[in-house]
Design brief:
The protein is mostly beta strands. It is 6% helix and 53% strand. The protein contains two helices and 18 strands.
Length: 327
């Protein structure tokens, strides 16, 4: 049993070396891509390596079992992501600890695509005419249930409604068509503590759904199967005291790309100040990330403030801010 953490790490590295950089990348296989974007400053700062975090409301976006060991009775988190091309994503997560009945959560993401100028083909010098601004939007709302079946094994599930509307277009019959799709999707996750210090591992399936279709061609959501491991590496030192250093590694098998690896860490001092960093492997643009966090008991509640910076490659940096309260 003591060799299990090292065996799993070897398996993770083998998955990446075998398929991470070879073969044809399965691009353009899925739609509603915002479901793949990191939600929350803390997860983003850790390079998205968040599958085995089980004490944070934001974990619902990564692993449905992620609220199974929440320390507080109630937790609320709100976050904003300043994405590329002036796109903004605002998200929230609310989790409630019902004790032996399990943990319940509500979460959502809403997009703001900014101004999109509409045009229509015309027989003038420009070849088009302006039709005004397009009103495009997307959102997802989810309900989560998690429960620790034993002190070592937790499960969780989420049902969510996904919607995307890309604005109206003019058909050949000169009538407007609202390009919108919506439907249900499902997540499932597990976390298992084998009994070796704080080491845990588990798996998730996210964005399982039926096909969606705008016009003629049907498409899938970005279905992703992942396995993850995590551990406080300072468990090896008896005098760690008020320090902790969480190391997390996630291996992803997405529907629309070759295998990917997320690696992240979180250093905590007195469970008040946090320094985080991470790296995403086998991405075209995303890579290095970093961030800081602060938590403090105030007015009977625990105040949470987080910030993250992510390298966006040619699209410049992506900044995220999160604020939360727990009691």
């Amino acid at each position: 049993m003591k060799k299990m953490p090292f065996i799993l790490i070897i398996i993770f590295l083998a998955i990446l070396s075998k398929q991470g950089y070879s073969g044809i990348k399965k691009v353009a296989q899925t739609g509603i891509q915002f479901l793949k974007i990191d939600v929350g400053a803390r997860p983003a700062a850790m390079g998205g390596a968040y599958l085995m975090i089980d004490d944070d409301a934001t974990a619902m976006f990564y692993n449905s079992a992620g609220i199974s060991k929440m320390r507080h009775s109630f937790e609320f988190l709100a976050t904003q992501t300043q994405w590329i091309a002036d796109i903004t994503y605002t998200a929230f997560a609310v989790a409630y600890n019902a004790g032996t009945m399990g943990q319940f959560g509500v979460s959502g993401i809403v997009s703001d695509y900014g101004k999109i100028f509409g045009t229509q083909i015309a027989s003038n010098d420009l070849g088009f005419i302006e039709t005004g601004n397009l009103s495009a939007t997307s959102y997802v709302m989810g309900l989560t249930y998690a429960r620790a079946l034993t002190d070592k094994f937790s499960i969780g599930g989420q049902v969510k409604y996904v919607y995307q509307q890309l604005g109206e277009s003019i058909t050949t019959s000169n009538t407007p068509k609202k390009n919108a799709v919506g439907g249900l999707a499902y997540d499932f996750g597990t976390i298992f503590y084998p009994g070796y210090k704080s080491f845990r591992f588990g798996m998730t399936i996210r964005n399982f759904s039926q096909q969606f279709k705008y016009e003629k061609t049907a498409f899938e959501l970005p279905l992703t199967f992942s396995i993850g491991i995590a551990m406080d590496v300072l468990d090896f030192f008896d005098q760690a005291g008020d320090h902790s250093l969480l190391l997390a590694i996630d291996a992803l098998h997405p529907r629309d790309y070759t295998e990917r690896l997320h690696v992240g860490f979180e250093y905590a001092f007195h469970k008040m100040f946090f320094l985080r960093g991470g790296y995403k492997i086998n991405y075209d643009e995303e890579g290095l990330s970093a961030g800081v966090g602060f938590q403090k008991e105030l007015f009977g509640g625990n105040i949470i403030i987080d910030y993250s910076y992510s390298d966006g490659g040619v699209f410049n940096a992506v900044n995220r801010f999160s604020f939360g309260i727990a009691f």
